[in-house]
């Protein structure tokens, strides 16, 4: 599902609500048809909803594997004392990055030394590591070079093939058409259209985003 809309339309705010970072004043969130209330992003993660925020929320002065396991570190117990199992975390991190086809110089590298695309890869690996069913990405390609954008779009397609649900926020209508099945358009905090990608056109979507097009019921796909 692509979520599109002009700057300030409320996209990030909506997904922060879905992710447990903001509490909704009203309305219900259904997960597999069941109402849920998330009190924090961690709460949402535990229920299989992982969000990669626009700001990425990675720790620059920590290594790649420390970031992937942040808040969910693996431990082992020796003589009754708990230790971080760094070797296991590094091993799993390497596997995840390989799965995503992200090449990094060294798993010990601080995240602040990585490129934008590599950082996005680390953030996605972190979401995959909790085996989330729903992965929400806020503008994952905004700051990336062309080759890195291709890679992120490939990650999204790979997630879709694995049967995961992805919500992608993007300003790039071409990217949206390449990876989405459905498109939701927000304007001034409201959903004004939900379209099947293969039954609409970039021009129509842009019309909804800018407000040039009015909502016609027949064009809105069912929830
Ligand atoms: N449903 C809402 N009700 C009231 N205020 C809202 C609502 N949604 C968003 N806002 C406010 O509108 C502003 C912009 O929202 P937000 O950052 O979510 O936009 P955005 O669509 O993500 O924009 P961008 O494309 O620039 O990232 C924020 O100050 C937010 O608090
Ligand atoms: Mg935003």
From TrEMBL:
This protein's UniProt keywords: ATP-binding, Nucleotide-binding
GO molecular function, one term: ATP hydrolysis activity
Domain ABC transporter: 1-213
Keyword Nucleotide-binding belongs to the record: yes
SUPFAM superfamilies, alphabetized: P-loop containing nucleoside triphosphate hydrolases (SSF52540)
Superkingdom of origin organism: Bacteria
Keyword hit for Nucleotide-binding: yes
Pfam families tied to this protein: ABC_tran
Protein name: Sugar ABC transporter ATP-binding protein
Species assigned in the record: Paracoccus gahaiensis
């Amino acid at each position: 599902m692509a979520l599109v809309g002009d700057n300030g339309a409320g996209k990030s705010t909506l997904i922060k609500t879905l992710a447990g970072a903001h509490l909704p004043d009203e309305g219900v969130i259904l997960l597999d048809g069941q109402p849920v209330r998330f009190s924090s992003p961690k709460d949402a993660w535990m229920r299989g909803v992982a969000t990669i925020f626009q700001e990425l929320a990675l720790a620059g002065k920590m290594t790649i594997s420390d970031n992937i396991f942040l808040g969910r570190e693996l431990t082992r117990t020796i003589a009754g004392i708990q230790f971080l199992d760094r070797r296991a975390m590094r091993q799993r991190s390497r596997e995840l990055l390989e799965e995503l086809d992200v090449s990094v110089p060294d798993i010990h590298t601080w995240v602040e030394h990585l490129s934008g695309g590599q950082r996005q890869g680390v953030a996605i690996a972190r979401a995959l590591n909790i085996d989330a069913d729903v992965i929400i990405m806020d503008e994952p390609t905004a700051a990336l070079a062309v080759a890195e954008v291709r890679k992120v779009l490939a990650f999204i397609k790979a997630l879709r093939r694995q049967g995961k649900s992805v919500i992608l926020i993007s300003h790039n209508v071409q990217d949206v058409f390449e990876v989405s099945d459905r498109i939701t358009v927000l304007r001034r905090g409201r959903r004004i259209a939900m379209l099947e990608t293969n039954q609409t056109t970039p021009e129509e979507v842009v019309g909804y985003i800018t407000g040039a097009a009015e909502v016609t019921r027949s064009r809105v796909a069912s929830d």
